[in-house]
């Protein structure tokens, strides 16, 4: 085998690796921040939060179990309720998520996110800021508990501590 043959085969191998890498990029979800493959339970949380950002109540509810619970620490006290009730109340005109505020932009950029998955259960934790019209409304930490139901991850509970102390 000549030197030219070896160089030609080396180029073929390199091109094949690039082709496989390109194809695989379209086959797996990728985290926006660091290019690593994103766990499906994290994707579920991101899609749930996208529903908040888009004022899309139906989308938000689709990522919850029917009886999902919310444990929210506000002003030093725990408030426990069904997440659906919190979201529906917000859509009816209460809080930062209300449709009365639908003309305002809201987002919940995540500064830090992690997850741990066991067979049919998972946890996702975040550090976030909740922005209304680009200004910090509050910030905090959230722990999402998810279960795998009918082959997809859904949120069964949320524990959230939020503060307006910057």
CATH topology grouping of the largest domain: Nuclear Transport Factor 2, Chain: A
Protein structure class: alpha+beta
Uncertain residue segments: 13-33
Terminal Cα span: 69 Å
Judging by the overall fold, what is the CATH architecture of the largest domain?
Answer: Roll
- Using only CA atoms, what is the Rg? 21 Å
In the CATH scheme, the class of the largest domain would be: Alpha Beta
Helical residue percent band: 25-40%
Q: How much is the average pLDDT?
A: 76
Order of helices and strands: HHHEEHEEEEE
Strand content of the residues, in percent? 35-45%
Overall geometry:
globular
Largest sheet, in brief, is: 7 strands, mixed
Number of strands: 7
* Helical segment count: 4
Please tell me the total number of domains: 2
Task: Explain what you see.
It is a single chain. With 166 residues, the protein is an alpha+beta fold. The protein folds into two domains: 1-29; 31-163, Nuclear Transport Factor 2, Chain: A (Roll). Helix content is 31%, strand content 40%. Strands 1, 2, 3, 4, 5, 6 and 7 form a seven-stranded mixed beta sheet that branches. Mean pLDDT is 76; it is low at 13-33.
For this entry, give a set of tags.
globular, 4 helices, Nuclear Transport Factor 2, Chain: A, 7 strands, 166 residues, 40% strand, 2 domains, single chain, alpha+beta
Give a quick precis of the structure.
With 166 residues, the chain is of the alpha+beta class.
Secondary-structure blueprint of this entry?
Layout: H1 3-25, H2 40-53, H3 57-62, E1 64-74, E2 77-82, H4 83-91, E3 106-107, E4 110-118, E5 121-132, E6 135-149, E7 152-163
Parallel strand pairs: 1-7
Antiparallel strand pairs: 1-2, 3-5, 4-5, 5-6, 6-7
